[in-house]
Amino acid sequence: MGAVLAAVLGASLAGCSSTGGKRAEERARAAEAGRPAVSTPRWTFAMVTHAGDGDTFWDIVQKGAKEAAAKDNINFVYSHDDQAQQQAQFVQNAIDQKVDGLIVSLAKPDALKDVIGKAVKAGIPVVTVNSGSAQSAEYGALTHIGQDEGIAGEAVGTELNKRGRKKAVCVLHEQGNVGHEQRCAGAKKTFAGSMENLYVEGTNMPSVQASIQAKLQADPSVDAIVTLGAPFAPTAVKAKGAAGSSAEVDTFDLNESVARDLKSGALGFAVDQQPYLQGYEAVDLLWLNRYNADVLGGGRPVLTGPQIVTGTEAGKLEEYIKRGTR
């Protein structure tokens, strides 16, 4: 990654003058050595997300954010909670600490509207990430970085059609998460067969397995299970086995376990939204805004997905998945 960043910095900063070239070389060497590649002040950026404990997806988001922060001389502060009220409190804490930039996921946007407004009023630039693209501009954020959940869901429905599936279950592991509802709604929109939502208790994996297993046993005609997060895919595979079902299991998001199951055929496909990019670009865009008043997106979300990943693609991405950047 250091070599890639160095190449990017070298290409973008060299310019035509010898002075520009020397500066680019200096920044490239700093990036390779793990030192800041910029001379801007040490600003503090806070990220607040709706991640639950042990969610590997958000580990990848954090990795991207931390690597961008190291490059940009940023003091990066991360906090998370799957309860919206606690998220709002974390945002308020960041405002009280007068951070220089704020990154927030809006899985339950209504609960965060007021406090995001406070941040914007206080002059703190805000970037929303992952969830809440529809509310981002309304709440005053500079831009939103992530996939359009409806479009991602539509991609799932289209892929299920290609695979000849007729009856699917969309497993929602967090009630009230607008992004999850949009994914399932998008899939229903393009899926030629029938699709039913199944709500499960995402914080209790044995309960998740039991719920999916019971559904498959009650309705043997179900031939596709779609989970909305990588940690739930292997649980769905176990439920399928226990139920004696032949349904295909597909999922949103990647991690090492999902990649392995894609290669073995235990999973059909995954939808990648490139979480590393979400964290990395959120920090980088805040830095660009502080440094040069830059804003990307032109009022529209900056999309990082969706990408359909099968066993073949998973093999090609395995190197990056193992290092925790995909």
Within the largest sheet, what's the order of strands? 2-1-3-4-5-11
Distance between the termini: 13 Å
- Return residue spans where pLDDT drops below 50 for at least 5 consecutive residues: 1-21
Structural class of the secondary structure composition?
A: alpha/beta
User: Nearest-angstrom radius of gyration?
Assistant: 21 Å
Average of per-residue pLDDT values? 91
Explain the overall architecture.
This protein has about 325 residues and is α/β, with parallel strands linked by helices. Helix content is about 50%, strand content about 15%. It contains 13 helices and twelve strands. The strands form two sheets. It has a six-stranded parallel beta sheet with strand order 2-1-3-4-5-11, sandwiched between helices. Strand 4, helix 6 (about 135) and strand 5 form a beta-alpha-beta unit. It is globular, with a radius of gyration of 21 Å. The two termini are about 15 Å apart. The relative contact order is 0.13.
